[in-house]
Amino acid sequence: MAEITAAPPRAARRLAPEDARNAAREVRAQRLRAFLFVTPLLAFILFAFVAPIASMLFRSAYNPTVADLVPATLEALEDWDGEARPPDAVLTRFAVDLKRLAEERTSGQLAEEVNRYLPGTSSVVKSTARSLRRADDAALAEGGANLLLEADDAWGEPGIWRALRKSGQVYTASYYLTALDLEMTRDGTIQPRDTQIYLKLYGKTLWMALIITVLTLVLGYPLAFHMAHSSTAHANFLMVFVLLPFWTSLLVRTTSWIALLQTNGVVNSTLITLGLTRDPLELLYTQFATIIAMTHILLPFMVLPLYSVMRGIDPSYMRAAMSLGSRPIPAFLRIYLPMSLPGLSAGALLVFIISVGYYITPALVGGTDGQMISNIIAFHMQQSNNWELAAALGSLLLFLIVALYWLYDRFVGAGNIKFG
Amino acid sequence: MKHRSLLLASALALGAQGAAAQDLTVTSFGGAYGAAQKEHMIDPYVAETGANILFEDYGGGVAEMKAQSESGNIQWDVVDIEVIDLERACSEGYVAVIDHSILPPGDDGTPAEEDFIPEALHECGVGNIVWSVIFAHREDAFADGGPQTIADFFDTEAFPGKRGLRKRPQVNMEWALLADGVAPEEVYELLATEEGQQRAFAKLDTIKDDIVWFDSWSQAPVLLNDGGAQMVQSANGRIYAAIEDEDAPFTMVWDGHVYDLDVWSVMNGTDQEEAALDFIKFATRTVPLSGMQDVAYGPTRRSAQALLPEEVKANLPTAHLEEGIKADGIFWADYGESLGEKFNEWLLQ
User: Fold this and answer.
1) ipTM greater than 0.90
2) Is the same domain home to B192 and B335?
3) In CATH, what number is assigned to the domain containing residue B241?
4) What is the mean pLDDT of residues A44-56?
5) Which chain B residues are closer than 8 Å to A285 by Cβ?
6) Digit-coded pLDDT (tens) for B188-245
7) What domain range is B183 assigned to?
8) DSSP secondary structure letters along A241-286
9) Distance from CA of A364 to the nearest CA of B (A)
């Protein structure tokens, strides 16, 4: 685009007005053509990438479920001080709302939302909804408060009403607070939650991603170096071995690690046959398994950019350094390494960012201590059904990666990345 | 999901959109259980009515139903749900209310209302099987008969070795309290309190280093078989199938088992509600239900239980109900999420 959108060269300004108009039209037409070419891509990115991420970000802070379900009750609760039981008028209004929900079969949604703020409430809401479904409308409008209290004593406690009011907030930061192991108390101060889980997991995820990046670098750099400095035929031959796993399904590669590492697997039986150990080692379902399997799976992402950058390094630089009297190691460190740095940055960044968000391999071989943040996000999507919290955790992960990329750009420079 | 889109793609490729739209999609848990359902419910129904049925698998839970319901794109028609999830699916409107008066009487003429065991007739579902979470051990792993009780399962000194448990709080929390001497009828009451939960985690702590975690029931017999664990928690049918079909040297222990029901439900908002109900009426008749004995799951109709041979009955959860406890769906709807978080925290410690 840059060439096309650039201002017409100086010579163009001396053209006759009509020629200038023609030229301008031509430039516009070119721009339009170029834009039409990328329109499918733009549309694709918009629908498949920008829209889902935006809706995820939105969902993490916007939850209108309760506000849509019981608007009248929430309005009535606005004036309540939050200390003692709310006035009977509020209870009655809620009873009427709840009966409507029971008839619409949406009381379960309310139950689930309120239960998040006060575990144990779900059954109170559901059983009350069931008993109110049979209640007479006139009696409900008259003495709904009593019917509510008859159905369950819990409605006499202020705690459940506070939970209801809290879950009725349409815009809320509470999922982000939870994702950071924090909670807001009644008087508005922020304090650590009883359950401390996500921060630790973010830390562990970053730490494991770092180890995997370093391991792929240690394994991949010499290989890329060797490939870049051997004959084309030999390099192509080796390249097949780098790419072969890349062409194999991810699941196949992960499950083959299960076969290798399990209690009576290949590794353990070899070790026992060789007499190196008597009892089988515990290899599968550990952090070790996650790291080793992910290192294997992500190795090509390190080798490929390194190789293509090294291929472009003129060998005469090293020869010049040596012939001018440098020893091999200083020559490598001062000449070759800086020149291969763009490939190294690209590979390291790729491996690191992919591993931070990795899901399937830790899920299959990670056991408990090899789990990463994505596995908890999947847990909240699939099992606890707390999509808002999953969205908040996912958004934080996104912010984290953007922040790391910014730091990288700050200190190393993103312009330095080269894939080939 | 992948499976489904493949099916869908091939249906489109064949230009069979019209026929595909008429298919009834029945979703269940697959494995040996799915095979038994196919043999005794799906295939006979297809033979009798000529209907087209897509029989699919899922892993349980309500997430997929929630996704279909929220997007308004209902893909399933009939779904097999654990009662532990049914409470939630029903009150959140993912599955439809079923009028039990449509159910046919048992083959011996008993009206449906009396023929089904009481728990089997839920307002949103019709009972399919009684199944149970038990534990099993390898016969060759222990000298003197091996562990006999839940307390033995938690006794690493008398019975050293790895224990396979499914990675979730459900059943594990119940077992921890039972092993700690809590009376079966007080388990859920205690688990609703902070000190009960702490007591359960403290008990789980005593075997934490010996636990091998797994994610789906199909892994349980595999773990026991390949030596990954010397005793495992499992759905009873999976162990039974391994013993019956492969002569695996496993012993089932019924002490403290946690039993539950599976029901057939109809997805709310499906455009084939009538066909779905018709299928359920067929599948919960006496003979199809009695076929579930193939995988050692007990039928939910008394008339179907009467058809079973005595030696089979002994291996069904229905013969051991007094040794176990009933999984409490309402408790888990209340505390599933908060205990799930605490459980994850405990795992990471």
Assistant:
1) no
2) yes
3) 3.40.190.10
4) 91
5) 212-213
6) 999 999 999 999 999 999 999 999 888 788 889 988 988 889 999 999 988 998 898 8
7) 131-260+324-348
8) HHHHHHHS-HHHHHHHHHHHHSTTSHHHHHHHHTTS-SSPP--SSS
9) 9
